[in-house]
Structure formats: C-alpha cells, structure tokens
Fold:
Amino acid sequence: MAYSDNTLHRAEAILGYGIGSATAGVRTYRVVDGIIYTDLFTDKPVIDGYTGTLTTRFNGSQRTPYFNEIVLNDKCQPEVSITAAWGNDTFTTEVDDLLKWLEDNPFADIADNSSVQSKKIEDSSTTFKDSDEAGSSFYDAVRGVWSFYIRNPIIISVTPEQRHDYGYF
Structure:
C-alpha cells in the first residue's frame, strides 16, 4: 500500500530516523563519538574523504538488511557527507502495521505539531471603550439583566415564630 507523505513523516518522527523508499543520494550527518546516526539505508555507504574502516548497524544490530548507524574505526571530520541507497522497502513492510494505524488515525498527527510552541493569529485585535462608555454599558447590562428584580423586589416576611430564621435569607 502506498502511504501519504504525512503518514511517512509521522512514522519518521516516532521512529527517530527517515524511512522513505529506496533512493540513492548524498546526505550530510554529524559524527557523535565515532558513530554516525543516519536515516535508514541499504548497502555499503561511501563517506566522502574517509579512508578508514566502518561497520554498519541497525540500532546496534548487524543482522538486518538495512541500517541506520555507521560506526567509524578511525577519526574523521565532525560532519560528513554520505552517499548511500536511502530507505528500504523491507523495513517499510515490517512497520506496515504502524503505517496503517497512522493512516487510519489522522487524529494521531500530534507529532506533526509537537514542535509548535505558539501560534500567532493575524488580523485580530481587541479595542476597549473609554471609561464613560464602559460605565454606561455596564449599567445598561446590569439593568437589562436585573431590571425585573429591581422593579419587583422579593419581600420576605418573618413571623414571630421564625424571627431567628432571617439569617438564612
């Protein structure tokens, strides 16, 4: 099944690396303590300017036909360009249940907005009345709501037997 770009982006946000379909190309990554954490790739990658040996892994395992880590055995630059076949169709079928669930549950796109700190809505403003207008508007509002009770007060009578009950009203 072909999945929408939105579904693939949400899956990549959950997994922490790009999955995509197999596409050859060059991408740039940082080297962290001799390891390059990459998007999913297949085959042997080529690192520009690196002549040492390397080991490819998928989350620490070497037993998969796809990889997302490159362990360098020699020193190299802190940022490198890597040529590889990015993505893997086998992996996409392995995470098919996740992709189907994301496709069937569009409400689960919270991950798409997880980095949004705030939104600004343009062309919206609030203006306030001056104090005279505000006072008269408040008086009109109170009079409109409470006018029945102001014109027809509730009279509560207290009989001698209930003279101490007035505190309850």
Q: What stands out?
A: The mean pLDDT is 76. The radius of gyration is 34 Å.
